């Protein structure tokens, strides 16, 4: 299954989700993209991944038009409270929304912002681990949809 994690800027949450999922499984392939990608991956996103011993080589902000494959599943990560609306992928694919606060938008000291990135990482890790533990590759579309809803509700 090709899984696309999608945000507006593709610099924090979607990048971390891509790296976490790819580090955890060889059964699925994760990608990330943005509707308006940032010029760079946020340095704290990379620092957070590295602190958890997850490889960051090759991670960069990219547009969804540059994906090497058509995704089977698109998971948006934007917070409903964000000032920029979540992008909508215009393809015939299964979709899910895992609302998350953007850690780069936290107005705090460097220490506070790093804590926000750690919190985002932990939530992504929890949702991705739950997703993988239920072997989504063996689920019917309605079962997969239920699993995705369960992942979304994890805090």
UniProtKB/TrEMBL annotation:
CDD domains in UniProt: LMWP_ArsC
GO BP terms in the entry: response to arsenic-containing substance
Keywords: Arsenical resistance, Oxidoreductase
EC class of the enzyme, as a word: oxidoreductase
One Pfam family cited in the UniProt record for this chain: LMWPc
Signal peptide: none
GO molecular function: arsenate reductase (glutaredoxin) activity
Lineage: superkingdom: Bacteria
InterPro entries the record matches: Ptyr_pPase, Ptyr_pPase_sf
The keyword Hydrolase belongs to this UniProt entry's keyword annotation: no
Its EC number(s): 1.20.4.1
Domain Phosphotyrosine protein phosphatase I as annotated: residue spans: 1-134
Keyword Oxidoreductase: yes
Protein name: Arsenate reductase
Highest classification ranks of the organism: Bacteria, Pseudomonadati, Pseudomonadota, Gammaproteobacteria, Oceanospirillales
């Amino acid at each position: 299954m090709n899984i696309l994690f999608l945000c507006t800027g593709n610099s924090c949450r979607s990048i971390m989700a891509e790296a976490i999922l790819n580090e955890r499984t060889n059964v699925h392939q994760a990608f990330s993209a943005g509707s308006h990608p940032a010029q760079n991956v946020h340095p704290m996103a990379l620092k957070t991944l590295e602190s958890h011993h997850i490889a960051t080589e090759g991670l960069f902000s990219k547009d969804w038009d540059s994906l090497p494959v058509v995704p089977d599943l698109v998971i948006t990560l934007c917070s409903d409270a964000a000032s920029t609306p979540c992008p909508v992928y215009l393809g015939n694919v299964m979709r899910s929304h895992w609302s998350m606060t953007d850690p780069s938008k936290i107005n705090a000291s460097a220490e506070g912002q790093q804590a926000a990135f750690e919190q985002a990482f932990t939530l992504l890790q929890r949702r991705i681990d739950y997703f993988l533990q239920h072997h989504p590759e063996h689920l019917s579309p309605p079962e997969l949809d239920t699993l995705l809803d369960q992942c979304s509700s994890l805090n």
